[in-house]
Amino acid sequence: MRVVAYNIQEFEKETLAKANAKVHDLTLISNPLNLETIRYAEGKEVVIVSAGDNLDRHLLDALQQIGVKKIITRSVTLDHIDLLYAGQLGLHIANTPLNDETPQSIAHQTIANLNSWINNQCLGQACHCAFKCAQKKESLL
């Protein structure tokens, strides 16, 4: 998948690159995601953000308009994303819900989400899409 990760801290670069193992076309950006930096997401299918990126209606509209279909946050919290509006736009949303919040664990969870999406698998507890799909229903059983 073609992916851009925003708000990347220096200590995250190596862990994300190693977890990715050159599977996905991954661009790492130290800038936060906003309307001025959205240009880095052009041509990408997935945007990876941090809890410091505020994905309100305006930003979600802009992401959808340039073709972004999926968003992963490198956090447990989702309060920085307008989930209801993202669902209305048909965007897939995932987080990194495990209690282990080390950079290595977050990187592995992030890449695992990408791998599941590319293999058309449900993300289970990491899935926060508004869609009612058979995959989600099966993964919760």
Automatic annotation (TrEMBL):
Domain of life: Bacteria
Pfam families the UniProt entry points to: 2-Hacid_dh
Membrane found in the keyword field: no
SUPFAM superfamilies in the cross-refs: Formate/glycerate dehydrogenase catalytic domain-like (SSF52283)
Record GO terms (molecular function): D-lactate dehydrogenase (NAD+) activity; NAD binding
Keyword line: NAD
Record-linked Gene3D superfamilies: NAD(P)-binding Rossmann-like Domain
Domain D-isomer specific 2-hydroxyacid dehydrogenase catalytic: 8-97
Keyword NAD recorded: yes
Protein name, UniProt field: D-isomer specific 2-hydroxyacid dehydrogenase-like protein
Species: Sphingobacterium alimentarium
